[in-house]
Amino acid sequence: MILSGLVGTLMSMNDPQWGNNGGGRRPPNPPDFDELWNDLKDWLGLPSGNKGKRRNNGNNNGGGKENAPSGLDPRALVSIALGLALAVWLASGIYIVDASQRGMVLRFGRYVETTQPGLQWRLPYPFAAHEIVNVSEVRSLTIGYRGDAKNKNNKELKESLMLTRDENIIDVQFAVQYRVKDAVFYQFKNRDPDAAVMQVAETAVREVVGKRTMDVVINEERTAVTEQVSLLMQEILDRYETGIEISKVTMQNAQPPEQVQAAFEDAVKAVQDKTRQENEGQAYYNDVVPKAEGQAAVLLEEARAYKERMTETATGDASRFSQIFTEYAKAPGVTRQRLYLETLQQVYANTSKVMVDAKGQGNLLYLPLDQLMQAGAGGTLARDTNNGARGGNASSSPQRPDEANKSPVTGSGVSRGELSRERESR
Q1: CATH number of the domain at 139-256, please?
Q2: What's the sign of the alpha-carbon dihedral 406, 407, 412, 415?
């Protein structure tokens, strides 16, 4: 066959003795590729300008004889070419899937299977095709701005301006991160899943913001708003079978439109002042009310104790009166006299005045009992002090001149004549 002849020729060319005339063996001439190409054209029936051309051999001694054919059949060349083409066509079905990707094989345009990471093969075109989807990449999109959220020139007012429940307009900017969790749904269930995520995100944000007031969205429930937006987006995307999973939703900015920004700041300051004054009032309340309640509790306890004391006293007095009345019924005179004396004793126990009967005859002595009592208390204290200082040994001291004039009865510096004159004046 032509193929075997070509292989033999190539092997003979690799022979180390090829071209060595000293060996007594003459190798065949190498094939002429131009002649092979002309033979192929003749075999295919194509016109060839070199038809009938003879090749001169340097060893025929100029005999002009025709050279021997190359020994290669043109049909073998066609078979080789077709084999190479078939090998290339079959090799076109080889593809590589990375670790972060998934491959999907289509046969005649219909999904057949999902291939895992590694070297894979499918039927070549046009029988089959494949598509690669990255399932690990975190994709992101923005609502209300493009690029930097702080740059006012990057705002998309058509997306960011929304209406709240209290009929106010608010400027809200969101950022959404998502990834592919089902490559088949992502690739074949929707025409443009990324655009669907954008529309779903805007719809969810408008629905959540529209159910709340402006103050709640801006100040009070920012975290709750983002969480609810994420849940609502995931619910809608699952309903549409997009094969997308929401990773994170972030509220970049929430504020009133620029046209009313100054008025809104004034309103916010007023609210803050109101809150501050309420806190101060609450602090004052927390300081005053507990003290007042404590004082009231003390007064109540004192009143309760006074009530119990007076009740017990009255009960005791009533019981004592009943007992006295019983004794009075037995001996009225004695009981009356005893009550009279006890009453006088109680009255005069707390007074410094002494009542003396002036109807009797004789000299009336003035007895300053209060001074005597004070002097007695002071003398006792002085003696105790002196005894303590001298180690308990008593000693006599000379009498002072002023002490000689003191009355032995009164113990003071008042003479008997003065007492008599005072008695006569009375």
Answers
A1: 3.30.479.30
A2: negative
